[in-house]
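All the exercises in this workshop are built on plain-text protein records. Sequence and backbone structure share a record, each on its own labelled line. The structure tokens are whole numbers drawn from a learned vocabulary of backbone shapes. The record below serves as our worked example for the rest of this section.
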Amino acid sequence: MLKTRLLTAGVILPLFLSALFYLPDIFWVTLILGLTVIGAREWSRLTRLSVKHTIAFMLLTVLIGGELVIFLRESMQLDVYTHDLIAAYAISVVFWIIAAPLYLKQIYKIDHPLIAMSIGWIVLLPTCLALYQLRTISPLLLLGFMATIWVSDTAAYFTGRSIGKHKLAPSISPNKTWEGVAGALIAVLLYGIAWSLWLSDQALMTVITPLLISMAVLGIVGDLYESLIKRQAGVKDSGNILPGHGGILDRIDALISTLPLAMLAVLIFYSPSS
């Protein structure tokens, strides 16, 4: 299994970096919309939508997602920092700060097709938009935000394995520990300090470390959220498109809950000088 995971990662990472820095804009749009549709299919499986509802959900995801990206693309021709879809990012952030923790406490259930589809769009579409807008602003900026989650996950894994004793959420994800969370936050703190020293813009320097720590926390929430949904669906992975890794949602669960926050923060706190 480990060998398969490493081989898959060894193939995907160079392809992703090549796409991130060199893929023409229209093909990047096609790529992220395609991944969003695959994510919609996996979401349908996890929330046990019927075949009829799955087809409707995927078609509507293509239509709504396509329209939103086209609208964003046109708006960004005038200003890459356009606020035209800032509400989408704000809705996502509110969902992950308030609604997702309530779900983890099992205050409510996703037991109706319309609820499942609506939450699916809140989960998937803002991330798709953030992937487009952040990449258009700067591929390196997007990579830096994504690396935050990779740093957090790696630190949490090794810290948890080394000294982890106190379970974070044993009924949801038995392997996660509070020590792993502490390790993740310390690693992201150091990463944020290093990033702030590298930045030349004063506005971003003051907010980047708190932002990255907030992303690490929401990344853990996103991870737990998908773990609970998978547990309730009785499946180990969201899909099998990535050998050794599972599905698309298994690989980007923490990015889904964090990239909209990153994009929202950029729009609120960063005003490029004209």
